[in-house]
Amino acid sequence: MSSSSPSPRPRPRIRLRSALIGVAALSAAAAAPALAAFTLDGSIANVPGNLQPASEPSVVLGSLKGHGNARVPWVAQVEPNAGGGPTQVFVEKLAGGQFSLQGESLNFNPAEHVTHPDIDFAGTNFSVPWTAWEEDAGGVSQIFASRFLPNADLSNGVWEINGALRGSVTSPGTQRGPSLNFNPDKGADAPRVHGGSLQANGTPAPWVIWKEEASAPGIGEQIFVTKGVKDSQPGPAQKGSFTWHIQGADRGTTPAQAAQLGPTLNVQISPTIDAEHPDITFTGKDSTVPWAVWYEEPNNLPAGTEPAAPNNQRVFAAKFVPDAALGDRGGRWVPVGNGTTCAFQAGGEDPAACALNKDANANAENPNVAAGSLNPANPTVPWVAWHESTGTAPAKIFVSRLIPAQNVFQIFPGPNADGSLNADPAQSADEPDLFFEGDVLHVTWKETVAGGKLHAFARTFTPGANGAGGTWSAAEDLQVDPTQDAGNPGIGAFGGSPFVTWAEGTGDPTAGHTILKHDPATEQAQTLAPTAITATSAHLNGAAAGDPGVFAASFEVTDPTGTRTVGAGDVTHNAPDPSQSFGVDLTGLAPNSIVKVRAKLATALGTIAGPEQDFVTAGSGAAGAVGLPPTPQQVGVKAAGPQVHRVRVAFKLGRTWKVTIKAHRGTRTGRVAASLTKKFHKGRNVAFLNIRGSGRFVITITPRAGAKRQTVVRTVRI
Asked: How many angstroms separate the first and last alpha carbons of the chain?
C-alpha cells in the first residue's frame, strides 16, 4: 500500500457513543411498562442558522465546572458550513432549552472533509471537553483531537488541537499535522475518545482508540489506543500542550513483524482479517481499568458474499494491564472472551475462545462498551452491545457483560424469547449504544419498521434490590419524522433522564437533521434536619427521592451574613431504593444564629429545590448568649368544657423562647384543630387551646428552629 496514494478503503461502519457503570446476576423478566414518552429538546440540533445536512452525532453530558455540578448535553457532529463545501466538525451545547455553538469548526484544515467525530470529558474533575475525529492530511486520513478552552465566564470558548506536528515517514516534505496515527503514512478512521486515569483519584486524561491500516506489509487493518500526556514545556513543533503516547506492547508473529506492526489489539493478525468499529471505556472500583472492544471480519470475500464460520465476523474485548517495564507504552492489552482459554499472545490469539458472539457461528458487528453494575456494592465491569445475524435472518441486538469471578463474558438476556432487545424480533436492528446511570442500564439502537424505514429505539433495564432480578421497559420508537431514516443513535444520561441523539434523513451515513430527545424524570429534593450543631458549624442533610439517577447535590444556606450555596458533590440514587441521602459539613457560622437551609438537586434540565429547614447555632458561652432552643419539660395537658373544649397545656422552658403548640386530630400528622405560636418565658408556662369536637387529639410543643427530637408530644381524649 503506498503511503502517498493509499488504496481505497470501504466506508467504515458508523460508530456510536457509549459509557459508564456494572455486574450481577439477573432474571430475563418480562417487559416492564414503557418508558415515559421521550421529549424533543429544541427543534433540531444542527448548527443554529445552518440548514446544511448534519450527520454522525455523538453525545456526552458534562460540565465545564466538573462533576458535582449540573451536566448538560454536548453534541459533536459533522456538517458543512452554511454556504456548503467540505464537512466540518461542530460541537453544540444544550442549556436552558437552547442549543448554542461552542467555538467554531474543529477541522485542522477547513478545506478537507471530516468524519467520525466523538466527544467526552477529561481533565480535572472531568471538566474539559475533548473531541476526536478523522480528517485527511497530505492525502492520508489522520486522527486528530482537540480540547475546549472556555472563556472566563464559561459561556463559550475555543477549540485547541493538540499533538506533535508530524510529517510523512517516506516523504518528509509531506505534512500530516498533529496526527495521533501510529504511522501517519497509513490511513486511520473511526476514533473514539474517553476520559480516564489508571490511578484512583488521578487527573483523567483523554484516551483515543481507532483503526488503522497496518504498517507491516500484507496485514489487515489494526486497532490502536493512545493516551494524551500534558507537556509542561511544549516545543515549537507541537500544537497545544498535549502529546500522544501509544499504549500497549508490540505484537506480531515474528519480532520483525512486531516492530513494524506496533501495539495492535487485534486478536487475529492476518492478511485476510480487518478490525473495525472500536470503542473504549474505564471500569473498576475507581474507574481505573481501560477496556476496548471491536470486531474483526474477513477482507478477501467477493463482493456481495456474506462472511461465514469459521471466518465469520466476531466481537472482541481487551483489558489494559499496566506494566512498568514497558515504559510510556504503559502496559499490554489482554483479550477476554466467552472462553476461559482466551489469553494474551505476542502473535495471533485464539478467536474462538476470545469472541463475545452469542452464537459462535453468527456474524457480529458494531460493538460499543459501557461501564456499569446492577449492584451498587460491586465494582463496575464492561458491558458490550452489538448486532448479530446468521444468513438472511434479521439482525438482533444483544448485550453481554464480564463475569469477574470466571473472567469471561456472558450474555445478559434481553426481554425477547431469543434474548435480544429488538422492538420486533422479526425486524433487523443495528448500531446499538448503551449507558449506565447509577445501576440503571439504558440502550438505544436503530431498527427497520413497517414500510422499510429505519427508526431510533430505546429500552431501559431497572434492577431489583442488590442487582437481583429486574425488568426491561418496552421499546420506544423515538423517531420524529417516520418518513426518514435514523442513523448513528447514541445515548448519555444525567439527573435521571437519558438523552438520545441521532441523525434523521437519508444516505450512508444518514444525513439530515440531528435530533436530541430525553425521557423526563420525576425527582424530589428532601431537606432533612441538620445534625451535629455547634456554635459555628453543623452537618447538613438531604435526600434524593423519586426516579433513580445521578444528581449534583447542594444546599442553599441563609444566615445573618447572606445567602450562599454549599456543594455536596454528586449523589447517585440507585434503583429500587426509594431515596438516597447526602450531606455536607457547614462551617463558619456565628453563634446564636438562625440558619435557613434548603437541599437542591441539579439535573441536565434545571434545579429541583426541597423545602426549607431552619436551625439555631449553639451559644458562645458568653453572658447573654442564647444557644440551642430549649426542650419543653414537665408537660401536661387537660381538657375542659362541654362543646368547645379549652385544653390547658403546661410546660417548663430552660430559657425564654418562641414555641408553637398544635392540636392534631387522631395522629401527630393529622389535621390541625387548633394552634398558637408565641414567646414563652423561662420557667413554668401555661397556654390554652380551644378545640371543637371530641375524640383523640395529639398535642405537639415545638421550640422554633428546634430539632425534630425537641418536639414534645402528648395525647388528650375529649
From this structure: 98
Cα separation of 436 and 370, whole Å?
7
Sign (positive or negative) of CA dihedral 15, 20, 24, 29: negative
Give the CATH number of domain 633-717; options: 3.30.1360.30, 2.60.40.1930, 3.20.20.70, 3.30.200.20: 2.60.40.1930
Residue 693 is predicted with a pLDDT of 86
Q: How many residues does the chain have?
A: 718
> In angstroms, rounded to a whole number, what is the distance separating the alpha carbons of residues 401 and 244?
30
> Is the peptide bond between 576 and the residue preceding it cis, with omega within 30 degrees of 0?
yes
Instruction: Give the closest residue to 370 by CA, choosing from 313, 317, 314, 429.
Output: 317
Torsion sign over Cα 217, 223, 229, 233: positive
Joined together, the cell numbers standing for residue 4 give 502517498
**CATH topology (fold) of 523-616:** Immunoglobulin-like (2.60.40)
**β-pair partners for 570:** 552
CA distances from 675 to 434, 662, 665 (A): 55, 4, 12
pLDDT of residue 641: 67
φ, ψ at 324 (rounded to 5°) = -60, -25
List, run by run, the mean pLDDT of 10-residue segments along the chain (718 residues). Answer: 33 33 27 56 82 94 97 97 94 93 97 98 98 96 98 97 94 93 98 98 97 96 98 87 97 94 97 98 97 97 91 97 97 98 96 98 98 97 97 95 98 98 98 98 98 97 96 97 96 97 95 95 95 94 97 97 96 97 96 93 97 86 62 77 84 89 93 94 93 91 74 89
The domain defined by 39-518 folds into: Neuraminidase (2.120.10)
Q: CA-to-CA distance for 143 and 526, rounded, in angstroms? A: 47
Identify the pLDDT of residue 706: 62
Three-state secondary structure string covering 209-220: EEEECCCCCCCC
Q: Which residue has the cell 512498568?
A: 324
